[in-house]
Write a structure and sequence with these properties.
The structure is a single chain. By secondary structure, this protein is α/β, with parallel strands linked by helices. It has one domain: Rossmann fold (3-Layer(aba) Sandwich). Helix content is 43%, strand content 15%. It is built from six helices and five strands, in the order E-H-E-H-E-H-E-H-H-E-H. A five-stranded parallel β-sheet has the order 2-3-1-4-5, sandwiched between helices. Helix 2 links the parallel strand 2 and strand 3. Helix 1 packs across helix 6. The longest helix is centred in the middle third of the chain and has 20 residues. The chain starts with a strand and ends with a helix.
């Protein structure tokens, strides 16, 4: 069973699209990777800070184990979160592959202004801070060899974006 890693900057529409994809599958799981960081209490480092690398690798390996467990049970798994190459993607991808599952990767991209506006409605969260949103957005601006995994989601409705992602995963 394949595991889809669905990512993008805050406000790109990841959570809504992941929910649609998992809900519409015969057996689907929406695994919110960012929530796994909430479990770290002592010694927590914001995941976008350079000094968080060891923590990030650990958390992503644990997310991979959870995703593989669901996939082993026959679920289509959508791992959704801010899964940046060089920070989060590789340990997650490698962990899922080591468990014997194929990995699909889709990056939702929306204009910076759209992401800031959407994320700004999340009061009390660090990811609502426009400076943090912009920093993360910039990291998704040029993905090099992974650029062909980008789906422009700025003006598309969530269902349209979900259909685009679904079509790409099937292809």
């Amino acid at each position: 069973m394949a595991v889809l890693i669905l990512t993008g900057p805050p406000g790109a529409g990841k959570t809504t699209v992941a929910h649609l994809l998992a809900s519409e599958a015969e057996r689907g799981v929406h695994l919110e990777a960012d929530r796994f960081f909430d479990f770290v209490k002592g010694g927590f480092v914001e995941p976008w800070r350079p000094e968080s690398h060891a923590q990030n690798e650990t958390v992503m390996r644990i997310v991979a184990e959870a995703a593989a467990g669901y996939a082993d049970a026959g679920y289509f798994v959508v791992v959704e979160g801010i899964v940046l190459p060089g920070w989060f993607y590789e340990p997650l991808r490698d962990g899922v592959r080591e468990a014997g599952h194929d990995v699909a990767y889709a990056v939702l991209r929306a204009p910076l202004a759209t992401c800031i506006e959407r994320a700004g409605g999340r009061e009390g969260q660090a990811l609502a801070d426009p400076a943090v949103v912009e920093q993360i957005w910039n990291q998704f601006a040029d993905l090099g060899p992974l650029e062909d995994h980008v789906i422009e989601a700025g003006s598309a409705r969530p269902r349209e974006t979900a259909e685009l992602v679904r079509a790409r995963v099937v292809a």
